[in-house]
Amino acid sequence: MRFILIFFASLLLAMPGRTEELVYVVSTGSAMPMTDFHDGVLVGGLLKEFGDALARELRMTPRYLTVPRKRVEAPLSNGQADILCDLRPEWLDGKDWLWSEAIFTNNEIVASRVDTAAVRSVAELRGQRIGTILGYRYAHLEVPLGDEFARDDTSSDDFNLSKLLRKRFRYMLTNSLYFDFQRKTHPERALLNPVAYKVSAFDTYCALPPRGKLALPALDRAIQALKRRGEIQAIVDRFRPN
After folding, report:
1. N or C terminus of the chain: which is more exposed, having fewer CB within 10 Å?
2. 9: how many CB neighbours lie within 10 A of its CB?
């Protein structure tokens, strides 16, 4: 009997241990190349590949919780999730989140159809209906335009692009990673203006709850390791069409 107990104990010790989960919050407001959703489940895209790589570096198992853009902070607050990536402090309400070092560099742009002249300044957008995403903040337009910033909100970049192509408005606010990808891959890409107005360049980061399972120094070390090996740049390059 003692031999049998020792035998089963040795088997249990030899079995690989289950790694701790790292739960990401992902906004359904984004689209390819950042996120690829099937039936509400994140199955691919730049954010998933980054999340998988980061979890491997931390020796954790990734899981992705998808929510609308306006609800991304709630899972961090109530303990449902551990981390939220590809955002900036001024885009969120919470002031207590712990922020990592930068993960991606991007540009906020005003995009248009090929039959519409690209804007040359923010002032040209006064009173113009502009495609925007519900819950997103656009400080570089909200401040100078004030009440003349005419938002036309929808739930995602893809819905906005569809409305732009259907001539529901002349301009949409988006980012260069998204629009460059769509100009190379969208079925109606010939209708998209290759010239876009750059509002601002920006970096994005990951946010942690102050008393979460993941410590900020450990997160930063993992991000630095991925950068040092060129993994983050390689992920971005894979989603940059030739």
Report:
1. C
2. 10
